[in-house]
User: What shape does this take?
Amino acid sequence: MIQKSTFDFLNKLKNNNNKDWFDKNRPVYELTKNDFETFVNELISSCSKFDVTIKHLEGKKCIFRINRDIRFSKDKTPYKINMGASISPGGKKSFTAGYYIHLQPGGASFLAGGMWQPEPSKLNAIRQEIDYNRDEFKKIINHKDFKKYFGVLSNEDKLKTVPKGYDKTHPEIELLKNKSFIVVHDLKDKDVLS
Assistant: This one.
């Protein structure tokens, strides 16, 4: 369970996103990071019951740094106002399908799963499998339980044109235009803290 103090720290960081404040509050950040790591370890343990490929993972190797990469950004705030972890067989640096937890107060937390922006060869393989197994795939994403928890497959990251090797009249062309294949389940603050 995530402690309320973790959300409190992230809320304060949002309003004090500078190095001086962060350095003064580093001990609180370390407690926050430890709380999130404990939560991620518990999540890995729970998910390992149905996905043995992640059983070997350690939370600390799945958690993203709180520092932002500001080199090419107009927003020069140095820290993320969320905590995130990628749970997949190779850890956060893996480019395989997996799970993602995003912790951010204000109703911005969510769970996700799938493949986000896979390399071209993997993206082509996903498209090919959807093409070959489209009835089965559609049955999954149209199932009432899938829709209850995830709504629809995320389609915010799409090609504007038809992917190479497919005809624009393909019955699932809009699905095949996806560059990421992920599902998202939004979480309310009360759910994260319960």
DSSP finds eight helices and four strands in the chain. The beta strands are 83-87, 98-103, 109-115, 181-187. The CA atoms of residues 44 and 147 lie 24 Å apart.
